[in-house]
């Protein structure tokens, strides 16, 4: 099976406004009232590398127009004027938009290496040490909106003292509880049952108090998951189970994409999983970019007209789209050896 890349890729590129002048990537996307809403992560500079969430709209899911001259969600709204909010993942439950986001509270510089991961420099910003926060520590939270535009902080979903991102909320309650995917970086070692960062799941009745994370999945194929795995987009409900995209990172920091199915009634159970990546860096815009090369990073998926639309960041520089028939994807998962 091959995902079909949109011929217009990359479908969203930086520019036009200062807050998105340098890069746009890792979007949340939702289809609502006949239009696609995209919540891009946007950077206006590399020094500091400060990102916020911008809004775009589209009628066809391909041709997006910028919907706001300013970002609609920022770290300043959380009380951190020099920080960054990142990687929006958006679902709508009972008429309310829920945006999972990651927060880095203070500034840092980004120095691309042109090889793999960039070098980050928080040392130029004393706020990290002054406030007792480990440099580059990332905390996750949820913001809510009634109209999909005006968001306000609801809660944090992870503690402040661990690096826990890739949070993705399930689009409906399961057995009366909210469910969320997580990736706590410090949960590694014998006591956690994994020797590298993996995917975890937590539950909550009110979005404020979360159950102790339970290990959901670990890296299984060293060739492309050898460094870590993490949840990608919010799960999608299908007839065969919860469809979940995840990213795998190898020892060369190449980001690829896999998929799994979770049990509909008990999403702690993985019932199917791809052994090979379903998407990996192949095209020029996926292999070379301003920030991190060889990266495809999907943070949004949705089902529209029996097709799965997968929106992904390319090299932390631009945004692309790939599609696949829903039945074809489910057949692949259920017949994977």
Share in helix: under 10%
Span between termini: 14 Å
Provide the structure class.
mainly beta
What is the count of helical runs?
A: 4
State the order of secondary-structure elements, H for helix, E for strand: EEEEEEEEEHEEEEEEHEEEEEHEEEH
Largest β sheet strand count, sense and barrel closure: 5 strands, antiparallel
Kindly state the mean pLDDT as a whole number? 96
What is the alpha-carbon Rg in Å?
Answer: 18 Å
Beta-strand residue fraction: 35-45%
Overall geometric form:
globular
Keywords:
globular; 337 residues; mainly beta
Task: Summarize the SSE layout with pairings.
Blueprint: E1 4-5, E2 23-32, E3 35-43, E4 51-58, E5 65-66, E6 84-93, E7 96-104, E8 109-111, E9 119-121, H1 127-130, E10 139-145, E11 152-156, E12 164-169, E13 178-184, E14 199-204, E15 214-217, H2 222-225, E16 228-231, E17 236-238, E18 241-249, E19 255-262, E20 270-273, H3 284-287, E21 296-304, E22 307-314, E23 318-325, H4 326-334
Antiparallel strand pairs: 1-23, 2-3, 3-4, 4-5, 6-7, 7-10, 8-9, 10-11, 12-13, 13-14, 14-15, 16-18, 17-18, 18-19, 19-20, 21-22, 22-23
Q: If you had to describe this structure to a student in words, what would you say it looks like?
A:
- This protein is mainly beta and 337 residues long.
- The two termini are 14 Å apart.
- The strands form 6 sheets. Strands 16, 17, 18, 19 and 20 form a 5-stranded antiparallel β-sheet that branches. The chain has a 4-stranded antiparallel β-sheet with strand order 1-23-22-21.
- A hairpin with a 7-residue loop joins strand 8 (109-111) and strand 9 (119-121).
- It is 6% helix and 43% strand.
- The chain is globular and about 50 Å long.
- The protein is built from 4 helices and 23 strands.
């Amino acid at each position: 099976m091959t995902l079909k890349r949109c011929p217009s890729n990359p479908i969203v590129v930086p520019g036009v406004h200062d807050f998105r002048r340098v890069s746009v990537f890792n979007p949340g996307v939702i289809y609502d009232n006949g239009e696609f809403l995209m919540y891009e992560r946007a950077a206006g500079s590399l020094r500091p590398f400060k990102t916020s969430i911008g809004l775009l709209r589209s009628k066809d899911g391909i041709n997006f127009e910028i919907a706001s001259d300013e970002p609609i969600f920022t770290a300043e709204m959380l009380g951190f004027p020099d920080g960054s909010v990142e990687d929006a993942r958006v679902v709508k439950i009972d008429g309310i938009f829920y945006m999972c986001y990651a927060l880095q509270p203070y500034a840092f510089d980004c120095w691309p290496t042109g090889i793999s991961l960039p070098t980050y420099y928080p040392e130029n910003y004393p706020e990290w040490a002054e406030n007792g926060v480990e440099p580059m520590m990332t905390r996750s939270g949820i913001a809510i909106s009634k109209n999909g535009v005006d968001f306000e902080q609801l809660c944090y979903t992870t503690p402040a003292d661990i690096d826990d991102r890739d949070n993705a909320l399930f689009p409906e309650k399961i057995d009366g509880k909210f469910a969320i995917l997580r990736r706590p970086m410090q949960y590694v070692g014998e006591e956690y049952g994994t020797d590298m960062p993996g995917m975890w799941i937590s539950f909550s009745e009110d979005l404020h108090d979360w159950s102790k994370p339970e290990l959901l999945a670990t890296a299984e194929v060293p060739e492309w998951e050898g460094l870590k795995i993490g949840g990608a987009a919010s799960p999608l409900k299908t007839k065969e189970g919860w469809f979940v995209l995840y990213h795998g990172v190898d020892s060369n920091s190449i980001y690829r994409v896999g998929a799994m199915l979770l049990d509909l009634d008990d999403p702690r159970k993985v019932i199917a999983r791809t052994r090979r990546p379903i998407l990996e860096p192949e095209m020029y815009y996926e292999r070379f970019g301003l920030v991190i090369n060889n990266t495809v990073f999907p943070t949004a998926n949705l089902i529209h007209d029996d097709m799965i639309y997968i929106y992904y960041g390319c090299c932390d520089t631009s945004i692309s789209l790939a599609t696949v028939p829903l039945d074809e994807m489910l057949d692949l998962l259920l017949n994977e050896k």
